[in-house]
Amino acid sequence: MTASAVPKSIIVAINRGLLLVTLWLCSSFSPAQAIQDDWQGVSRIVAIGDIHGDYQSYITVLEEAGVVNKRAKWSAGKTHVVQVGDIPDRGPDTLKIIEHLQKLEKQAKKAGGYLHLLIGNHEYMNVSGDLRYVHPGEYEAFETRQSKKTRDNYYAYVAKTLASQRDSQTAKGSASTPLPVIDEAFKSDWYAKHPLGFVEHRLAWQPGGEIANWVSSHNTIIRINDVLFLHGGLSTDLLPLSMTDINEQIRSELRGESVSGAPLGAASYGPLWYRGLARNSERVERPVLDTVLEHFGAKMVVLGHTPDLNVITPRFDGEVIIIDTGMSAYYGGHRASLLIENGIATAIHGTRTQKVPESSQEIIPYFESLAEQFPANPRLKAHIEALSIVSSQSDTDDLTTTERTERAATTEN
Fold it and tell me: In the chain, which end has fewer C-beta atoms inside a 10 angstrom radius, N or C?
Protein backbone atom coordinates (compact mmCIF):
# COMPACT_ATOMS: atom_id res chain seq x y z
CA MET A 1 0.00 0.00 0.00
CA THR A 2 1.28 3.48 -0.83
CA ALA A 3 1.57 6.31 1.66
CA SER A 4 -1.36 8.10 0.08
CA ALA A 5 -3.53 5.16 1.03
CA VAL A 6 -3.02 5.53 4.79
CA PRO A 7 -6.46 5.13 6.39
CA LYS A 8 -7.78 8.49 7.51
CA SER A 9 -8.82 7.14 10.90
CA ILE A 10 -5.27 6.05 11.62
CA ILE A 11 -3.77 9.39 10.60
CA VAL A 12 -6.28 11.21 12.80
CA ALA A 13 -5.39 8.96 15.71
CA ILE A 14 -1.67 9.50 15.18
CA ASN A 15 -2.07 13.26 14.97
CA ARG A 16 -4.12 13.35 18.13
CA GLY A 17 -1.69 11.03 19.88
CA LEU A 18 1.38 13.17 19.39
CA LEU A 19 -0.15 16.62 19.47
CA LEU A 20 -2.63 16.20 22.29
CA VAL A 21 -0.08 14.57 24.56
CA THR A 22 2.18 17.56 24.02
CA LEU A 23 -0.67 19.95 24.68
CA TRP A 24 -1.66 18.20 27.88
CA LEU A 25 1.86 18.78 29.14
CA CYS A 26 2.13 22.44 28.17
CA SER A 27 -1.42 23.82 28.21
CA SER A 28 -4.01 24.40 30.87
CA PHE A 29 -7.73 24.60 30.20
CA SER A 30 -9.97 27.03 32.03
CA PRO A 31 -13.75 26.78 32.25
CA ALA A 32 -15.64 28.65 29.56
CA GLN A 33 -16.98 31.99 30.71
CA ALA A 34 -19.72 34.01 29.10
CA ILE A 35 -18.23 36.81 27.01
CA GLN A 36 -20.00 40.07 26.25
CA ASP A 37 -21.66 40.03 22.83
CA ASP A 38 -23.89 43.13 22.89
CA TRP A 39 -22.84 46.79 22.90
CA GLN A 40 -25.13 49.82 22.80
CA GLY A 41 -24.51 53.54 22.42
CA VAL A 42 -21.57 53.15 20.02
CA SER A 43 -21.33 56.18 17.73
CA ARG A 44 -18.76 54.91 15.23
CA ILE A 45 -18.21 51.42 13.82
CA VAL A 46 -15.81 50.21 11.13
CA ALA A 47 -16.18 46.69 9.73
CA ILE A 48 -13.80 44.79 7.47
CA GLY A 49 -14.24 41.51 5.67
CA ASP A 50 -12.30 38.30 5.16
CA ILE A 51 -8.50 38.73 5.21
CA HIS A 52 -7.22 35.30 4.12
CA GLY A 53 -3.55 35.66 4.90
CA ASP A 54 -2.77 38.91 3.06
CA TYR A 55 -1.04 41.28 5.47
CA GLN A 56 -0.46 44.17 3.07
CA SER A 57 -4.08 44.36 1.92
CA TYR A 58 -5.24 44.04 5.52
CA ILE A 59 -3.06 46.93 6.70
CA THR A 60 -4.00 49.08 3.72
CA VAL A 61 -7.72 48.56 4.39
CA LEU A 62 -7.21 49.59 8.02
CA GLU A 63 -5.26 52.68 6.95
CA GLU A 64 -7.90 53.68 4.40
CA ALA A 65 -10.59 53.31 7.05
CA GLY A 66 -8.64 55.43 9.53
CA VAL A 67 -8.19 52.55 11.98
CA VAL A 68 -4.37 52.55 12.05
CA ASN A 69 -1.70 55.12 11.30
CA LYS A 70 1.32 54.76 9.05
CA ARG A 71 3.07 52.82 11.80
CA ALA A 72 0.18 50.34 11.84
CA LYS A 73 -0.88 51.41 15.33
CA TRP A 74 -4.44 52.07 16.50
CA SER A 75 -5.56 55.58 15.55
CA ALA A 76 -9.35 55.18 15.72
CA GLY A 77 -9.95 56.39 19.26
CA LYS A 78 -13.23 55.07 20.67
CA THR A 79 -14.30 53.44 17.39
CA HIS A 80 -15.49 49.83 17.49
CA VAL A 81 -13.81 47.87 14.70
CA VAL A 82 -15.29 44.54 13.60
CA GLN A 83 -13.45 41.93 11.57
CA VAL A 84 -15.97 39.28 10.49
CA GLY A 85 -13.68 36.25 10.43
CA ASP A 86 -11.57 34.24 7.97
CA ILE A 87 -8.16 35.54 8.89
CA PRO A 88 -6.34 32.33 7.87
CA ASP A 89 -5.91 30.24 4.70
CA ARG A 90 -5.20 31.07 1.05
CA GLY A 91 -2.37 33.49 1.91
CA PRO A 92 1.03 33.23 3.65
CA ASP A 93 0.75 36.02 6.24
CA THR A 94 -1.74 34.63 8.76
CA LEU A 95 0.63 34.45 11.72
CA LYS A 96 1.89 37.98 11.07
CA ILE A 97 -1.69 39.27 10.89
CA ILE A 98 -2.68 37.50 14.10
CA GLU A 99 0.30 38.90 15.96
CA HIS A 100 -0.61 42.39 14.78
CA LEU A 101 -4.27 41.94 15.72
CA GLN A 102 -3.28 40.82 19.19
CA LYS A 103 -1.35 44.06 19.66
CA LEU A 104 -4.17 46.08 18.13
CA GLU A 105 -6.70 44.58 20.58
CA LYS A 106 -4.70 46.01 23.48
CA GLN A 107 -4.15 49.38 21.78
CA ALA A 108 -7.87 49.74 21.03
CA LYS A 109 -8.83 48.99 24.62
CA LYS A 110 -6.31 51.50 25.94
CA ALA A 111 -7.77 54.18 23.65
CA GLY A 112 -11.34 53.47 24.74
CA GLY A 113 -12.23 51.66 21.52
CA TYR A 114 -12.79 47.99 20.78
CA LEU A 115 -11.56 45.44 18.26
CA HIS A 116 -14.11 42.66 17.69
CA LEU A 117 -12.57 39.64 15.98
CA LEU A 118 -15.32 37.25 14.96
CA ILE A 119 -14.96 33.56 14.20
CA GLY A 120 -15.26 32.47 10.57
CA ASN A 121 -15.49 29.06 8.96
CA HIS A 122 -11.77 29.06 8.20
CA GLU A 123 -10.81 29.63 11.83
CA TYR A 124 -13.10 26.74 12.69
CA MET A 125 -11.58 24.56 9.95
CA ASN A 126 -8.03 25.18 11.12
CA VAL A 127 -8.86 24.39 14.73
CA SER A 128 -10.76 21.23 13.78
CA GLY A 129 -7.96 20.01 11.50
CA ASP A 130 -9.42 20.73 8.05
CA LEU A 131 -6.27 22.01 6.35
CA ARG A 132 -7.37 21.95 2.70
CA TYR A 133 -6.80 25.67 2.21
CA VAL A 134 -3.70 26.25 4.31
CA HIS A 135 -1.10 28.15 2.30
CA PRO A 136 2.47 26.73 2.33
CA GLY A 137 3.64 30.05 3.74
CA GLU A 138 1.43 29.55 6.78
CA TYR A 139 3.47 26.49 7.75
CA GLU A 140 6.72 28.20 6.88
CA ALA A 141 5.88 31.05 9.29
CA PHE A 142 6.10 28.58 12.18
CA GLU A 143 9.47 27.16 11.15
CA THR A 144 12.29 27.43 13.71
CA ARG A 145 15.75 25.96 14.15
CA GLN A 146 14.14 23.04 15.92
CA SER A 147 11.55 22.31 13.22
CA LYS A 148 13.58 19.60 11.48
CA LYS A 149 14.09 17.72 14.73
CA THR A 150 10.44 18.23 15.68
CA ARG A 151 9.27 16.83 12.36
CA ASP A 152 11.69 13.88 12.58
CA ASN A 153 10.37 13.05 16.05
CA TYR A 154 6.80 13.29 14.76
CA TYR A 155 7.61 10.94 11.88
CA ALA A 156 9.25 8.50 14.27
CA TYR A 157 6.08 8.54 16.35
CA VAL A 158 3.94 7.94 13.24
CA ALA A 159 6.10 5.00 12.12
CA LYS A 160 6.17 3.48 15.60
CA THR A 161 2.39 3.81 15.96
CA LEU A 162 1.74 2.17 12.60
CA ALA A 163 4.17 -0.65 13.40
CA SER A 164 2.43 -1.24 16.73
CA GLN A 165 -0.96 -1.35 15.04
CA ARG A 166 0.37 -3.80 12.44
CA ASP A 167 1.72 -6.07 15.20
CA SER A 168 -1.63 -5.92 16.96
CA GLN A 169 -3.47 -6.89 13.78
CA THR A 170 -1.07 -9.80 13.21
CA ALA A 171 -1.53 -11.07 16.75
CA LYS A 172 -5.29 -10.97 16.37
CA GLY A 173 -5.18 -12.51 12.90
CA SER A 174 -7.18 -9.55 11.61
CA ALA A 175 -6.44 -6.88 9.02
CA SER A 176 -9.77 -5.12 8.78
CA THR A 177 -7.98 -1.78 8.37
CA PRO A 178 -5.17 -2.10 5.78
CA LEU A 179 -1.97 -0.44 6.91
CA PRO A 180 0.73 1.08 4.72
CA VAL A 181 4.19 -0.38 4.40
CA ILE A 182 6.70 1.77 6.25
CA ASP A 183 9.38 2.04 3.60
CA GLU A 184 11.36 4.81 1.89
CA ALA A 185 8.49 5.58 -0.47
CA PHE A 186 6.14 6.05 2.47
CA LYS A 187 8.67 8.23 4.28
CA SER A 188 9.33 10.39 1.24
CA ASP A 189 5.63 10.94 0.64
CA TRP A 190 4.97 11.65 4.31
CA TYR A 191 7.72 14.29 4.49
CA ALA A 192 6.40 15.95 1.35
CA LYS A 193 2.97 16.28 2.97
CA HIS A 194 4.32 17.54 6.29
CA PRO A 195 6.60 20.52 5.58
CA LEU A 196 8.74 22.18 8.20
CA GLY A 197 6.48 24.17 10.50
CA PHE A 198 3.55 21.76 10.08
CA VAL A 199 3.77 20.32 13.59
CA GLU A 200 4.16 23.77 15.15
CA HIS A 201 1.19 25.03 13.14
CA ARG A 202 -0.97 22.17 14.42
CA LEU A 203 0.20 22.67 18.00
CA ALA A 204 -0.85 26.31 17.81
CA TRP A 205 -4.18 25.79 16.04
CA GLN A 206 -5.63 22.59 17.46
CA PRO A 207 -7.89 22.69 20.56
CA GLY A 208 -5.84 23.83 23.51
CA GLY A 209 -3.18 25.47 21.35
CA GLU A 210 -2.18 29.10 21.71
CA ILE A 211 -3.96 30.36 18.61
CA ALA A 212 -6.98 28.10 19.11
CA ASN A 213 -7.43 29.47 22.62
CA TRP A 214 -7.16 33.01 21.29
CA VAL A 215 -9.74 32.31 18.56
CA SER A 216 -12.15 30.74 21.03
CA SER A 217 -11.92 33.79 23.28
CA HIS A 218 -13.85 35.70 20.61
CA ASN A 219 -17.46 35.64 19.48
CA THR A 220 -19.26 34.25 16.46
CA ILE A 221 -22.05 36.83 16.44
CA ILE A 222 -22.36 40.23 18.11
CA ARG A 223 -24.79 43.12 18.14
CA ILE A 224 -23.63 46.71 18.21
CA ASN A 225 -26.53 49.15 18.55
CA ASP A 226 -29.14 47.62 16.20
CA VAL A 227 -26.67 45.91 13.84
CA LEU A 228 -25.74 42.22 13.88
CA PHE A 229 -22.25 41.20 12.76
CA LEU A 230 -21.19 37.65 11.90
CA HIS A 231 -19.32 35.70 9.25
CA GLY A 232 -21.72 33.60 7.19
CA GLY A 233 -25.39 34.25 7.82
CA LEU A 234 -28.45 33.52 9.92
CA SER A 235 -31.13 30.98 9.13
CA THR A 236 -34.32 30.21 11.00
CA ASP A 237 -32.85 26.78 11.76
CA LEU A 238 -30.76 28.53 14.42
CA LEU A 239 -33.81 29.69 16.37
CA PRO A 240 -34.61 29.87 19.23
CA LEU A 241 -30.88 30.11 20.08
CA SER A 242 -29.73 33.46 21.43
CA MET A 243 -26.48 35.18 20.47
CA THR A 244 -24.93 33.92 23.68
CA ASP A 245 -26.16 30.37 22.97
CA ILE A 246 -24.54 30.45 19.54
CA ASN A 247 -21.31 31.95 20.83
CA GLU A 248 -20.97 29.51 23.68
CA GLN A 249 -21.65 26.46 21.52
CA ILE A 250 -19.10 27.43 18.86
CA ARG A 251 -16.65 28.26 21.64
CA SER A 252 -17.19 24.85 23.22
CA GLU A 253 -16.67 23.09 19.90
CA LEU A 254 -13.42 24.96 19.32
CA ARG A 255 -12.21 23.92 22.77
CA GLY A 256 -12.89 20.30 21.99
CA GLU A 257 -15.70 20.05 24.51
CA SER A 258 -18.65 17.74 23.95
CA VAL A 259 -21.89 19.35 22.76
CA SER A 260 -25.35 17.94 22.28
CA GLY A 261 -26.39 17.30 18.69
CA ALA A 262 -24.44 17.97 15.51
CA PRO A 263 -21.64 20.57 15.64
CA LEU A 264 -23.00 24.02 14.84
CA GLY A 265 -19.70 25.25 13.45
CA ALA A 266 -19.79 22.78 10.56
CA ALA A 267 -23.52 23.03 9.78
CA SER A 268 -24.55 24.43 6.39
CA TYR A 269 -27.36 26.36 8.11
CA GLY A 270 -25.01 27.61 10.82
CA PRO A 271 -23.59 31.11 11.35
CA LEU A 272 -20.22 30.27 9.80
CA TRP A 273 -21.48 28.77 6.53
CA TYR A 274 -25.05 29.89 5.71
CA ARG A 275 -25.29 31.84 2.45
CA GLY A 276 -29.04 32.28 2.11
CA LEU A 277 -28.96 35.98 3.01
CA ALA A 278 -26.14 36.52 0.50
CA ARG A 279 -27.39 34.50 -2.47
CA ASN A 280 -31.00 33.37 -2.20
CA SER A 281 -33.79 35.26 -3.90
CA GLU A 282 -34.75 38.21 -1.72
CA ARG A 283 -38.40 37.40 -2.17
CA VAL A 284 -37.82 33.86 -0.89
CA GLU A 285 -35.40 34.88 1.86
CA ARG A 286 -37.30 37.97 3.09
CA PRO A 287 -39.35 36.03 5.69
CA VAL A 288 -36.13 34.50 6.99
CA LEU A 289 -34.50 37.91 7.35
CA ASP A 290 -37.54 39.43 9.05
CA THR A 291 -37.71 36.54 11.50
CA VAL A 292 -34.05 36.63 12.50
CA LEU A 293 -33.97 40.42 12.77
CA GLU A 294 -36.96 40.35 15.10
CA HIS A 295 -35.54 37.46 17.11
CA PHE A 296 -32.19 39.16 17.67
CA GLY A 297 -33.61 42.67 18.07
CA ALA A 298 -31.77 44.17 15.12
CA LYS A 299 -32.42 46.22 11.98
CA MET A 300 -29.38 45.27 9.91
CA VAL A 301 -27.02 42.32 9.37
CA VAL A 302 -23.39 42.70 8.25
CA LEU A 303 -21.77 39.57 6.78
CA GLY A 304 -18.53 38.30 5.26
CA HIS A 305 -17.95 34.91 3.60
CA THR A 306 -19.35 35.62 0.09
CA PRO A 307 -17.19 37.85 -2.17
CA ASP A 308 -19.38 37.53 -5.27
CA LEU A 309 -19.16 41.12 -6.53
CA ASN A 310 -15.84 42.23 -4.95
CA VAL A 311 -17.47 45.38 -3.54
CA ILE A 312 -19.50 46.28 -0.47
CA THR A 313 -22.82 44.72 -1.47
CA PRO A 314 -26.18 45.78 0.00
CA ARG A 315 -29.22 43.50 -0.26
CA PHE A 316 -32.78 43.74 1.05
CA ASP A 317 -32.77 47.55 0.75
CA GLY A 318 -29.61 47.79 2.81
CA GLU A 319 -30.81 45.59 5.66
CA VAL A 320 -28.11 43.07 4.73
CA ILE A 321 -24.62 44.28 3.81
CA ILE A 322 -21.93 41.88 2.56
CA ILE A 323 -18.45 43.19 3.27
CA ASP A 324 -16.30 40.31 2.02
CA THR A 325 -14.90 41.93 -1.10
CA GLY A 326 -11.98 39.54 -1.58
CA MET A 327 -9.22 41.75 -0.18
CA SER A 328 -6.68 38.92 -0.31
CA ALA A 329 -4.42 38.64 -3.34
CA TYR A 330 -5.94 35.18 -3.80
CA TYR A 331 -9.20 36.88 -4.80
CA GLY A 332 -7.66 39.82 -6.60
CA GLY A 333 -6.96 42.25 -3.74
CA HIS A 334 -10.29 44.11 -3.75
CA ARG A 335 -9.96 46.38 -0.73
CA ALA A 336 -12.97 47.90 1.03
CA SER A 337 -14.53 48.49 4.43
CA LEU A 338 -17.82 49.62 5.93
CA LEU A 339 -18.32 52.66 8.16
CA ILE A 340 -21.44 52.99 10.30
CA GLU A 341 -21.50 56.38 11.98
CA ASN A 342 -24.51 57.67 13.88
CA GLY A 343 -26.63 55.02 12.18
CA ILE A 344 -25.56 55.89 8.60
CA ALA A 345 -23.76 53.15 6.64
CA THR A 346 -21.02 54.23 4.23
CA ALA A 347 -18.96 52.05 1.91
CA ILE A 348 -15.24 52.81 1.69
CA HIS A 349 -13.50 51.63 -1.47
CA GLY A 350 -9.95 52.88 -1.51
CA THR A 351 -10.10 56.60 -0.78
CA ARG A 352 -13.69 57.00 -2.01
CA THR A 353 -16.75 56.86 0.20
CA GLN A 354 -20.36 56.28 -0.78
CA LYS A 355 -23.54 56.03 1.25
CA VAL A 356 -24.96 52.51 1.26
CA PRO A 357 -28.46 52.39 -0.31
CA GLU A 358 -31.45 52.19 2.00
CA SER A 359 -34.10 51.73 -0.70
CA SER A 360 -34.51 49.81 -3.95
CA GLN A 361 -34.42 53.03 -5.97
CA GLU A 362 -30.88 53.75 -4.78
CA ILE A 363 -29.46 50.34 -5.64
CA ILE A 364 -28.71 50.74 -9.37
CA PRO A 365 -27.08 54.21 -9.02
CA TYR A 366 -24.92 52.81 -6.21
CA PHE A 367 -23.59 49.96 -8.34
CA GLU A 368 -23.25 52.21 -11.42
CA SER A 369 -21.00 54.50 -9.42
CA LEU A 370 -18.89 51.55 -8.35
CA ALA A 371 -18.72 50.31 -11.95
CA GLU A 372 -17.23 53.68 -12.92
CA GLN A 373 -14.68 53.34 -10.14
CA PHE A 374 -13.86 49.73 -11.07
CA PRO A 375 -14.35 49.48 -14.85
CA ALA A 376 -12.42 46.20 -15.05
CA ASN A 377 -14.87 44.38 -12.76
CA PRO A 378 -17.12 42.27 -15.04
CA ARG A 379 -19.22 41.07 -12.13
CA LEU A 380 -20.49 44.58 -11.49
CA LYS A 381 -21.48 45.04 -15.12
CA ALA A 382 -23.39 41.76 -15.16
CA HIS A 383 -25.07 42.64 -11.87
CA ILE A 384 -26.20 46.04 -13.13
CA GLU A 385 -27.59 44.51 -16.32
CA ALA A 386 -29.61 42.03 -14.30
CA LEU A 387 -30.86 44.77 -11.98
CA SER A 388 -31.89 46.90 -14.94
CA ILE A 389 -33.93 44.07 -16.41
CA VAL A 390 -35.72 43.55 -13.12
CA SER A 391 -36.27 47.29 -12.76
CA SER A 392 -37.77 47.58 -16.26
CA GLN A 393 -40.26 44.91 -15.24
CA SER A 394 -41.23 47.09 -12.24
CA ASP A 395 -40.35 44.28 -9.85
CA THR A 396 -39.04 46.71 -7.26
CA ASP A 397 -39.78 44.40 -4.33
CA ASP A 398 -37.01 42.12 -5.55
CA LEU A 399 -34.79 44.70 -7.16
CA THR A 400 -31.50 43.54 -5.72
CA THR A 401 -32.04 39.86 -6.54
CA THR A 402 -29.97 38.54 -9.43
CA GLU A 403 -28.67 35.28 -10.72
CA ARG A 404 -25.01 36.21 -10.49
CA THR A 405 -23.29 34.87 -13.57
CA GLU A 406 -19.91 35.55 -12.06
CA ARG A 407 -19.12 33.78 -8.82
CA ALA A 408 -16.09 33.81 -6.58
CA ALA A 409 -13.30 31.44 -7.51
CA THR A 410 -14.67 28.86 -5.09
CA THR A 411 -17.91 28.31 -3.21
CA GLU A 412 -16.03 27.41 -0.04
CA ASN A 413 -14.61 30.80 0.85
Answer: N
Spell out the residues 6+ positions from residue 331 whose beta carbon is closer than 8 angstroms to its own.
52, 90, 307, 310, 408, 409
Residue 225 Cα distances to 84, 97, 298, 321, 343, angstroms: 17, 28, 8, 16, 9
Tell me the mean pLDDT in the region 97-120. Answer: 98
Fold for the domain defined by 38-126+218-357 = Purple Acid Phosphatase; chain A, domain 2 (3.60.21)
In 3D space, the residue among 8, 386, 293, 377 whose CA is nearest the CA of residue 177 turns out to be 8
Q: Which residues partner with 320 through β-bridges?
A: 301, 315
How far is the first Cα of the chain from the last one, in angstroms, to the nearest whole number? 34
The residues that bridge with 355 in the sheet, in sequence order, are 346
**What percentage of the chain exceeds 70 in pLDDT?**
86
Taking residues 295-310, report their average pLDDT.
Answer: 98
| Strand ordering across the sheet containing 352-355 | 114-117, 80-83, 44-48, 337-341, 344-349, 352-355
Q: pLDDT for 176-232, tens place per residue?
A: 678 898 999 999 999 999 999 999 999 999 999 999 999 999 999 999 999 999 999
> What is the tens place of the pLDDT at every residue in 232-242?
999 999 999 99
Top-confidence residue, 394 or 245: 245
